[in-house]
């Protein structure tokens, strides 16, 4: 059995998170293997493996010596894929400014996108970048396997550590050790094409809505003859299980229980059954889901941007960005909702996810220090504000909208958060989330153990529900729980 440290996650409700930073884009496909949503998962061919050959693997990660800034250091960094033109421009500008301050550092661009199925191979072959992107579920997974550097000393010496957004940063604090740097995050919500509803004479539901409101709205706007669905729950890849988990949480359920040194599957509960029965109603009673239900993150969000579905479930910034900048929609056409409550008066609970940067434990102390400095280079800085504003201006020149993430590495009410908000308020091409909507969001972190494996198994169940009207829902749910328990949870011993 593999032994792991016990972690206590604080289940934090997000009460107010207004307009926030978008310099690094968004990864709101937290459940899928394609971890950057619409970004391509590519093999790293540009990494300088000489940066990852130190004997420091998983060992002493104390801060580098004071003269590290004068040493010749090479680091490889996460670099956006070719389709992300604006993000590449921002990263190139950051590299230029970083090298002006640290001319001793050679920066190698890596287009490898984190994939849980590839990270072990990358680490084993010393091909993982010095600094790579990952998402919220992976903190314990990476720390347990020694694939994320212990950056506790670097973080504790960081000038702005106390101003980092605890909603995000806590997800990469395992025990008393820090293994990642928060970038941005989200609470999963529902993005609605208001124009589709209005054009069909369908009433726009209140933001404090319920499952019944979602079902009735989806049923009313769907038109299967025209290939229009009322809602497009994701139905393939791990993202199908990820989408469904929001409803499990809203019904009061849990993915797993951790007690007495054991991890036990808990999702085959009354709450889980209720959530799956709701999915069955969407598909077979309301006939509101797509006939071709096998949609991944990109498929579902693309359908939304193209006006082929009225609602999509995701981290809100992705669908909003695609709807505005690829689908030709107007800000007034798009409404961002929290997830619906199971019943009136219930919580609008959504999966809390986010993007993080992790430092390769195989890197030397100097490489790790420079990777940390690069990761946080624009944090809490005027140069960072200038870079954001330049991006907003460029988007305006290109007749595009700037869509911030829902949560960023800083808190909205901090001094820096107010500075960012002031920049946003200067421009009419910045999409800003309604405080009314944000006040309803209730973020719940994902499970501590084997989250992606659970998502994958639940995807099979979701597909059974969408494809078979007479499916035995309880039997499918119990079978999934048995598989996850025997294949994954039984191998874990929690101390």
UniProtKB/TrEMBL annotation:
Family matches, as InterPro entries: Bact_solute-bd_prot1 (IPR050490), SBP (IPR006059)
SUPFAM superfamilies, per database record: Periplasmic binding protein-like II
Domain of life: Bacteria
Record's keyword terms, sorted: Signal
Spans annotated as Disordered: 28-65
Stretch forming the signal peptide: 1-22
Protein's organism: Paenibacillus taihuensis
Protein name (record): Carbohydrate ABC transporter substrate-binding protein (CUT1 family)
